[in-house]
Each structure stands twice: as structure tokens, then as C-alpha cells.
Amino acid sequence: MKLITTIVFLIFTISLFGQNTDSNTTELVREIQAELQKAQVEIEKLNLKIDNIEKENNGIVGVSNTIISWSGRIFAIFAALLSIATVYSGYQISQIRKIKNDLEELYKKSKREIEDQKSELESLREDFKKDKEDSLKLLFPLIRGQWYFYQGDYEKSLSAFLQAKKIQPNHPEIIRNLYRILANTGKTEEAIQNLEKLYKEFPDDKVIKYRLAQTYRRNGQLENAEIVIKDAAINDKYPPALYEYGSILMNSNRLKEAEEIFIEANRQFLIEEGVTKYWVFVNLSLTQLLLGKIDESRRNADKVFEIVNTQLKLAPSNAQLYSNLGLSYLLKGDNVQEGKSEFLKSTEKNLPSGIAKSMINKIELIDRVKESPINQETIKLLKSYLEKEKNTVANNG
């Protein structure tokens, strides 16, 4: 803009010079005016180039070349001006020289800024190259981590995410997945410590809130869990947060509130992902059973059975799916022996200890309404499995 203003001023000034002069001088002034008008058009184009520099791969080079080429041309015009201005006052000459000096300074400043931008661009290119290399290194550990997680092999998933963490130690997505797996594999205290650090660093991250609240709940810290997750559930309507808040309410025996929250969680999952989640139906069915809504509970247990069987076709080794299939039998109260068998399959497929503890808690709640020797036998089976896992870890340590 400063450059354009300068050119306009020059055209106006030269038009004044053209008055009261002979015809030859007047013609020369007109030619210089024409040249300056051309310069004005080119400088306007230059401004457009600068405005769009981010859109052009070689924008900096192009703008730099334009400035260099036009600086020579405009300085030549100033030289012509000074040659004919000798017939005018010293004040006029000094003004022209001042404008020339201002313009020279403007060009120098523009050139410096362009060089600085070029250096910054080179730095960005180097950073991008490094990020690209790191991203390629991360690709396979992340794929393996997710694959093993959905297949229910949490130990291999944990190993893959630990490998990814070595490449990018502070990547939030890696850390969130890592501590989810730590919680599922029974490393609750370690998961809580690290999730609390993450929560302080990223207090608005809904996924971190969800993972921390879930780990608090599984560790029996229901008040802490509610404090962390309530806002993300009630105000943000984040579906996993709604599910977790409902689970906290259920375990706090606030059953009516829990039922409403689970229904809302399913509704939000449908809105955001187009599907319902079997684990929401599990806790909804359990809550309704505790409220004495036997028919509603059974209908939702049937949905658990249907969804889990479909998912087992895709992930036949997922121990968590077998445990939830077993739970659906216990919730309905018929074929409970089949339910126990499904839990046995889940332990044979290395059910994560965090999930096993959660299942014990759920079966104990079911047994409050539907007392059954099979419920007690299943609880005993899971506790025996946890003890064996604990001894295995101790021996390996």
C-alpha cells in the first residue's frame, strides 16, 4: 500500500512539473507519467502476489524477482526526473530525492522480509520432513496396537503402543490408548498416575476425561470419577462420557438417574456414530434389573446377545466379547449354565484382569436380584482366574 501511495504521489507531482514548461519537456514528463502509471499497475500485481504467497510453492522467489526487476525500472524513472528537475526549486528536488530514498528503503525492507520468510519456509520444510518420517515410523505400531486391541489381545496391543510411545512420547492419541490398555490389563495405579498428569496438561480433552473417570471408577473412586466426567456428559453430550457417568451413577446406587443417562448415551451414539454399543445395553439392562423392570431388562439383554454374537464373527478371539455374552445369559436368567461356559471361554482367551474385576462387580449386582448358584460359581471362577494371573505376573517379575 505504501508503494502504491508513493507512485500515485509521483504521478501527481509530475503532472505539476508538466505545467509552465516547453513542449519537449512536457512530452518527456508525459512519458515518465505513463511509465509510472505502468509501474502502479505492476505494483498492484505485486501486492496480489504477496497476498497469495502461501498458495504458491515458489511464491517467495516470484515476488523477490518482481521487486528486483521493478526496482531498477523505477529508479531509472527517478533518474530521469532529477535530470529535468534542475530547472525547478531545490525544495522540489529534495522532495523527489526523499521519495526515491523512501522507496529504496521500502525495497530493502521488503527484500529482508522475503529472505526471512524464505528461511522460515525452509525451517517448516525441515520440520515437515521430520514429522513425515516419524509418522511413517508410527504407522505400523499404531495399526498393530488397534488391531490387537479389537481382537482382545491387550498384552500385544500394549507392546505396540509402548513402541509407538518411544517414537513420539507426548503424542496425545498414543498416550490415551496406552493408558486405556494399562487400565484394562489391571495396571490401574500406573494408569491413574499417568492419566492425572495428562488431565492437568489437557484439561478439556474429553477422551482423557473419559479414560481417567473410567479408571477411577474401576478403582472404586466414584466421587473422583464423577467430578472428572460430569461436565463432558451433561453439557457436551459426549457419548462415552454419558456411558461412564451412567456407570458411576449405577455403582453409586442412583439407579433412576443411571437409567436415563444410559438411554441418552445410546441416543447420542446413534446420532454421532450411527450405531449403538453393546456395553451401554449391558449396563442399561443391569440398571433396569436392579429397578425391578424385568421385561425392559430382558429386552436389552437380548440386544447385548445379538450385537456381541455379530461382533464375535469379526473378532472370534476377543475375550471381552465372550464375557459380555456370558453376562447376557445371566441378565436374562435362563441358560445361566451357558453363561458360565462363556465366561470360562473368556478366561481361556486371556480375559484382561481389569475386565474380569468389572464382571465380578456386575455379577454380584445381578445376584442381588436373581440369586443363583451359577452366579456364585462364575464369580469364583473369575476370582480364581485373577489370582492365577497375579501369581503369573509375580513369578515373571
TrEMBL record:
SUPFAM superfamilies: TPR-like. The keyword Coiled coil applies. Pfam families: TPR_19, TPR_8. Gene3D superfamilies: Tetratricopeptide repeat domain. TPR repeats lie at residues 138-171. InterPro entries: TPR-like_helical_dom_sf, TPR_rpt. This is Tetratricopeptide repeat-like domain-containing protein. It comes from Phaeodactylibacter xiamenensis.
